[in-house]
Amino acid sequence: MEPISEAVKIVSAVNSSLLAPSATTNTRTSQHECRMCADTGYQGWKTPHAGYSMEECIFCECATGQRVLEYWKRKSVAKKQADMEKLFVGACIPAHFRSFTLDSIRQRAVNEPDKKAAIDAVEQWITAGYVEDPATKRYKSGLVLAGDYGRGKTGTMTPAIRHSLEQGKSGLWIEVTDFVGAIQSGYRDGTSLERLEAAQKVDVILLDDLGDKSRDGAETDDRRRIIYQLVNYRHNNGLPMRITTNLNGQQMAAQFGGANCRANHGIVRMGEYGGAQFAPGVSQ
Questions:
Q1: What global pTM score does this model have?
Q2: Is 169 exposed, middle or buried (0-12, 13-18, 19+ CB in 10 A)?
Q3: pLDDT tens digits, residue range 218-267?
Q4: Who contacts 129 (Cβ-Cβ below 8 Å, separation ≥6)?
Q5: Which of these, 254, 256, 267, lies nearest to 226 by C-alpha position?
Q6: What is the C-alpha separation between 84 and 91, in angstroms, rounded?
Q7: What three-state secondary structure class fits 125?
Q8: May I ask the CATH architecture of the domain 88-272?
Q9: Residue spans per domain, the chain
Q10: What tens digit of pLDDT does each residue of 102-143 get?
Q11: Partners of 267 in the beta sheet?
């Protein structure tokens, strides 16, 4: 029988071996570049894979965490865009406008000074993320181009929304008649609120051809309400809007009312977009 002192030595040696990190453990730990997330990209157990929203997840600040975050951002935008295109037929940029760039617009309008200020405003928004109001010198996130049909308002606006899409943001390019029609058609199947909310929250929107120049009186209450809910929400939340219209300020107020005009305070309205007509589909 071993002396008690020897038994104590053996037990102490076993305990020490259990408490000390093993060679295997050290190797495994050293394989992780980030000790905070063990190279998973997440801090904590909540992940989008498990059904949690991105807002609920904590992404690590390490390189892996930032790559994981960018991945889920792209997934989120892609889903938002896909949902948008289900809710609004033709939500993307029409084929004959896709080749429009700022350079091609400037080349087209090289001898048309009436277009220069508007083109400069679009370029400022692309490069800086805002437009300076020439009247108040305040920076705003929205832009309205007004002028007669065929002057190139929509083509000039297109590079702005195209830029946003290329930056990984969601976008909605839609004519006002189609937008209002889609909301109203949702009254029958219960999708009107879903469609309105999608347009309110999309990263960037181009609302094309607002108003009817041949109309003498006010728009219907329902159409005015739909436009107001869209513009007011985006204004209150600092979300950019691009609008083209054939109406001047007085006609806009007559058709859509004072509430819509007040909601437009976050939008820079450029003067008459004049000059020669742009042929549809021409980008050179």
A1: 0.70
A2: middle
A3: 889 999 999 999 999 998 898 988 999 988 888 888 888 766 655 555 56
A4: 141
A5: 256
A6: 7
A7: helix
A8: 3-Layer(aba) Sandwich (3.40)
A9: 29-76, 88-272
A10: 899 999 888 888 888 889 989 998 998 888 888 788 888 888
A11: 142
